[in-house]
Amino acid sequence: MPKIGFIGIGLMGLPMCRRLLDAGFEVGVWNRNPDKCQPLISLGAQHFSGLQQLAESVDVIMLCVSNTDSVMQISDNLFPHLLPGQTIIDFSSISPDATRQLSEKAAQKAVNWLDSPVSGGVAGAQAGTLAIMIGGDEAQVDKVRPLLNPLASSVTYMGPSGTGQTTKICNQMLVSCNVLVMAEVMAMAQRSGVDASRIPQALKGGFADSIPLQLTGTRMAQQDFSEVKWHVKTLLKDLDMANTLAKQTGSATPMAGLGAQLMRQHASKGYSEQDPATLVTLYQADKQKKE
After folding, report:
1. In this predicted model, what pLDDT tens digit does every residue of 43-80 receive, in sequence order?
2. How far lies 194's CA from each of 182, 186, 187, 189, in Å?
3. 27 and 20 Cβ atoms separated by less than 8 Å
4. Sign of CA dihedral 157, 162, 165, 169
5. Based on C-alpha coordinates, what's the Rg of the chain?
6. Closest-CA residue to 164 (of 260, 88, 51)
7. What is the DSSP letter of 35?
8. In whole angstroms, how far apart are CA 25 and each of 30, 60, 161, 223, 254?
9. Quick one: residue 47, left, alpha or beta (phi over 0 = left, psi -120 to 50 = alpha)?
10. What is the CB-side half-sphere exposure of residue 208 using CA atoms within 13 A?
11. Tell me, what DSSP letter sits at residue 48?
């Protein structure tokens, strides 16, 4: 079994590593804040003190960090120590252009780079039911599928480098616009005298149903914002990438454009690190001003 080095022990990385360890893989971990690695060390993961040590000790490197800049910074420190034949699986959601650049740079060292963003949130990471969309060399994707089985219920090859990231942008356009409309719905229902907490159950199984509705809708209605399961800043970052891609390709994306503006407005009010369930406060604040 290949030895795995996992970089990025955050909301998603922690449960993903747990599942890899439970599946019997040998996993080493590194994080900018080493304290976050402790729960995995107690489960048997090896802790790497630096990226050089990690790169020189593993067969497969997995990345799961916050944005394009983070991936680029880590890669700058990682690339000098990579070994021919290694594979990098990037679970982060980053720019397709940056992904293609990194893939070309990795190829110069005989290293495979697979852009493999995930969807399903923390709940999917914990249950091993993530959807993974992959770009890169198809033969290499087939080789790493056994490593992805503990993490995902769906692994789809999308095409050459960058196509996995482009698919994730499409995914996030749908998710973000969905959750923004959900906030409008919950606020309007409450103003109309409806018990909004019942809406997810009422719509379950219908055309309006969705996983975000079932996971986030009730929390919006009940003002349950204490547990952060995903971040407003993540959706904003992905909507910005969607609009950049739309400009590059000449695509019309008016909903994603408006969504980015609303998400940025919400983030600017101190909600950047909060759960998107807090989006409902956009419309509740509007009501309070009118009153």
Report:
1. 999 999 999 999 999 999 999 999 999 999 999 999 99
2. 15, 9, 10, 5
3. yes
4. negative
5. 20
6. 88
7. G
8. 16, 11, 26, 40, 44
9. beta
10. 10
11. P
**Distance between CA atoms of residues 262 and 256, nearest Å:** 10
DSSP lists the bridge partners of residue 155 as 132
Task: Fill in the DSSP letter of residue 12.
Answer: T
Q: Which residue matches tokens 């090896």?
A: 46
Q: Which of 35, 16, 51, 49 is CA-nearest to residue 130?
A: 16
Closest by CA to 131, choosing from 144, 147, 117, is: 117
Type of residue numbered 132:
I
DSSP string, 265-291: HHIIIIITTS-GGGGGHHHHHHHHHH-
The pLDDT value recorded for residue 1 is 87
Q: Give one word for 10, left, alpha or beta, with left for phi > 0 and alpha for psi -120 to 50.
A: beta
DSSP state letter for 45: P
| pLDDT beneath 70, residues of the chain | 285-291
191: how many CB neighbours lie within 10 A of its CB?
A: 12
Q: Of 168, 204, 229, 289, which one is the catalytic site residue?
A: 168
CB 123 within 8 A of CB 215: yes
Query: What's the CA gap between 24 and 44, in Å, rounded?
Result: 10
Separation between Cα atoms, residue 210 and residue 213, nearest integer Å: 5
Specify whether 143 is catalytic.
Answer: no
Q: Record the tokens describing residue 279, joined without a space.
A: 């989006």
